[in-house]
Design goal:
This protein is an alpha/beta fold and 353 residues long. It has a seven-stranded mixed β-sheet with strand order 6-5-4-7-10-15-16, sandwiched between helices. The longest helix has 37 residues. It contains 13 helices and 16 strands. 47% of the residues are buried. It has two domains: 127 residues, Four Helix Bundle (Hemerythrin (Met), subunit A), CATH 1.20.120; 216 residues, 3-Layer(aba) Sandwich (Rossmann fold). The chain is globular, with a radius of gyration of 20 Å. It starts with a strand and ends with a helix.
């Protein structure tokens, strides 16, 4: 059983994903600044898991508070600002901090500082528990949609599925979003093989998804990101499914860079391409994907591979961490509440109300 993140005895414990699959290294910390750095550096990553980690990071911060109740509001405001600055694209982070801010707003005046802290810890744990339950519900909705959409193929053979980046336990703490759907589909005998795109530049598909699939003993093959269109052309991919870091009101979806190319190729080849993400990933305040903030990361992530220089230090680099796939290229958006197909503007709004 993969233990991606846990919180006990005022200590956050997480699996440092930067070292996988070559070694498993767990880190335990009571320092909220160290936890913020873990989110920034992708030691902890994946939109739902970032939300869980953000919630626990806030708890680490308030556990370190030594002042009076009157001094706490200023401390808490700074703490929230620091946590929210760690990763700008994954809306789950802001969902988590909003939940904790609501506890503060609702209970600060009436409660003692100890009681307030206890309620905030309970809220953080619920965020974690909810993500685990969301993965299970999402997997079921996803499998039912796949069975319906690909029923004709399933009459004669099992399916080959493309996925990108990592969306399993390492990204969620539960069974996963897109990878959770794949795992359940495998258990139900629907999947022949998973095709995992490498996900440059940090290789989350090659390193993390491959590692999880090996743990689950699910047949897979890893490919370069640029191979998917050719495999679709040759009939080697039946559908694609990925996660999301933010979904706009019209279904436009931000996910790991490279996703949009896969989706457009699938659309061209008449292959269903799905998003699987919890409702907490939907940002109904953004009308379309042009409004999603896209993180640009350090150029050395592209110029080096595991510390080995592959380009000169002066090579100009544009290193966007995410791209935005227009909703028109998606067959469906699978959430923990239901699978939405078609009118995203109306249906996504209903999900978050």
């Amino acid at each position: 059983m993969i233990d991606a993140i846990s919180f006990n005895d005022k200590t956050l414990r997480y699996l440092d994903q930067r070292y996988l699959p070559l070694r498993e290294e767990y880190v335990s910390t009571r320092d909220h600044q160290e936890a913020i750095e873990a989110i920034k550096t992708l030691a902890v990553r994946g939109a739902p898991l970032i939300g869980v980690a953000a919630a626990y990071t806030v708890i680490l911060g308030i556990n370190s508070f030594k002042g009076t109740k009157a001094e706490f509001p200023e401390f808490f405001g700074t703490l929230i600002t620091d946590v929210e600055a760690s990763r700008p694209t994954a809306v789950n982070l802001f969902f988590a901090t909003a939940r904790l801010k609501k506890v503060y707003d609702d209970h600060y005046e009436a409660d003692t500082i100890e009681t307030l802290f206890a309620k905030m810890l309970a809220a953080a744990r619920k965020i974690h528990d909810d993500e685990i339950a969301n993965c299970d519900a999402m997997s079921r909705h996803g499998v039912e949609l796949i069975k319906a959409d690909l029923a004709d193929i399933l009459k004669t053979r099992k399916l080959n599925v493309l996925t990108h980046c990592n969306t399993g336990t390492l990204a969620t703490g539960g069974s996963g979003t897109a990878l959770g759907v794949i795992k359940l589909a495998w258990q139900e005998g629907l999947i022949e093989r998973v095709i995992s795109a490498e996900s440059r530049p940090l290789l989350q598909g090659l390193r993390l998804t491959a590692w999880e699939l090996e743990q689950e003993k699910i047949p897979f093959i890893s490919i370069s990101d640029s191979s998917s269109a050719f495999l679709m052309q040759r009939g080697m991919i039946d559908f694609g499914i990925v996660g999301a870091d933010r979904i706009a009101a019209n279904g436009d979806t931000a996910n790991k860079i490279g996703t949009c190319a896969h989706a457009i190729s699938a659309w061209h080849h008449n292959i269903p391409f799905y998003i699987a993400a919890p409702v907490s990933t939907i940002d109904i305040t953004l009308s379309d994907g042009t409004q999603i903030p896209i993180e640009e990361r350090n150029a050395d992530e592209l110029r080096t591979i595991f510390g080995t220089q592959v380009a000169t230090p002066t090579t100009p680099v544009l290193n966007y961490a995410f791209d935005v796939t227009p909703g028109k290229y998606l067959r469906g958006i699978i959430t923990d509440k239901k699978a939405v197909v078609g009118n995203y503007v109306t249906e996504l709004k209903l999900l978050v109300e």
